[in-house]
Design brief:
249 residues; alpha/beta; seven-stranded parallel β-sheet; 8 helices; 7 strands; 15% strand; binds NADP nicotinamide-adenine-dinucleotide phosphate
């Protein structure tokens, strides 16, 4: 936990599985009360809460589709009402849909933009409005190495993650006067359901290109996110930290 003894509150979107789950557990270990947002998988979200509680922190699950502004507004309002504060927002809920540009489906574009861009913007705005009054807060966006590296089939996904990097820098500048820091992490291939769904030959092909010769663990992203939220990183804002086993080198 940070220097002061107050219990801080962190909201992690898409925290029922994968990277979001690891972020929620890492923040819980640092003493944060954690709100575990999920879209459909209530049992998995409750399991994450149980792990956080077993580690000694408070946690609650909250169902909301973060691509829907009405649901985001209700979630932020309810969290602020229940805990009186929101100190950390981790924008993590995202989707990947690989499609080559020549066969691209317009629905894919809408879904990726709706969750990966609009979702991040809705949550950031609503959370920042709460942080603003306390003159303190921290937003961490989960981007992707695809924002800085061309991966065939990911033109929509990488465009959304490039947008995440851009909004990170711009929001950092806008929100700095109010004591709110905004940073991003850009994971490479991390062993979650998202990567599990890849065909075996694709996995082998990708593994070959990673200098560390393995996929990352969600915890290796969650721990960096928890560190970025801490006072140890109080002078860092507007940055994107690549966590990719050397893939982008
Ligand atoms: P994942 O395993 O597929 O988990 C996705 C999470 O997002 C789940 O908790 C899911 O909730 C939630 N979610 C989905 N749609 C939602 C919505 N509309 N509203 C709220 N929550 C929603 O994903 P992941 O691999 O951990 O990826 C998480 C983030 O990391 C994404 O932004 C992704 O782009 C980024 N990333 C992942 C990798 C990777 O290799 N895995 C690499 C780079 C970047 P339910 O369980 O309820 O469905």
């Amino acid at each position: 936990m940070d220097n002061n003894t107050e219990i801080k509150v962190a909201l992690v979107t898409g925290a029922s599985r994968g990277i979001g789950r690891a972020c929620a557990i890492s923040l819980g270990k640092k003493g944060y009360t954690v709100v575990v947002n999920y879209n459909s998988n209530e049992a998995a979200a409750n399991e994450v809460c149980d792990i956080i509680k077993a580690n000694g922190s408070e946690a609650s699950a909250y169902k909301a589709d973060v691509s829907d502004l009405t649901q985001v507004k209700a979630m932020i309002r309810d969290v602020a009402k229940q805990y009186g504060r929101i100190d950390v927002l981790v924008n993590n809920a995202g989707i990947v849909k690989d499609e080559y540009v020549l066969m691209m489906n317009p629905d894919t574009i809408d879904q990726c933009l709706g969750l990966n861009i609009k979702g991040y913007m809705y949550c950031s705005q609503q959370a920042a409005l709460k942080m603003f009054s306390k003159k303190r807060g921290c937003i961490i966006n989960v981007s992707s190495v695809s924002s800085v590296l061309a991966v065939a089939g990911q033109s929509v996904y990488s465009a959304t993650k490039g947008a995440v990097n851009s909004m990170t820098a711009t929001m950092a500048k806008e929100l700095a006067p109010y004591g709110i820091r905004v940073n991003a992490v850009a994971p490479g291939f991390i062993a979650t359901d998202m990567v599990d769904k890849l065909p075996e030959e694709k996995k082998t092909e990708y593994l070959d290109t990673i200098p560390l010769k393995r996929f990352g663990n969600p915890e290796e992203v969650g721990d960096v996110v928890a560190m970025l939220a801490s006072d140890e990183c109080s002078y860092i804002t507007g940055q994107v930290f690549v966590i990719d086993g050397g893939l982008s080198l």
